[in-house]
Amino acid sequence: MNDIIEQAKSVLLSFMNEMNLWEVKYKKLYKEDDVKYMIPAREDLRNIYLKWLTNKERKTGRLAGPSVGYPPEYDTATEVIDTVEKISINKLVIYTDSEQIKGFNERFRYTLKRVNNEWRIGKKETFSDFKEKWVNLVF
Fold first, then answer.
1. CB 85: neighbour CB atoms within 10 A?
2. What does the alpha-carbon distance between residue 48 and residue 79 come to, in Å, rounded to a whole number?
3. Second label for 68, Cα 20 to 30 Å away, from 15, 17, 28, 56?
4. pLDDT by residue (tens digit) across 113-125?
5. What is the CATH number of domain 2-137?
């Protein structure tokens, strides 16, 4: 079971690293000309999604209009894995804690599913203190 958990954690961290590289790259390029780089940004992002996310339609979110911010949303230096919850043999939830801005902590949970013997990320949520519940985030 530990191997399965380590594989899922590795998938999440690899996804986060690729997203960070994408964000940093396109933040710099968007400063030059965001219109010029919109199509390549979308294509690069689509490839990341195909590699790491579950195959489902995502009508909204970053893929619809590739955007980047600062600091990057995905950063394994500031977002660390806290706990892993086994839902079933093919489904895990990984909880992370993030402190992108000093003194401001955010908690996330990622739902991963094993599809064709590969772990894929299906959903990202954040805990809303205001609503006192987990709310969906778009990729």
1. 12
2. 19
3. 56
4. 999 999 999 999 9
5. 3.10.450.710
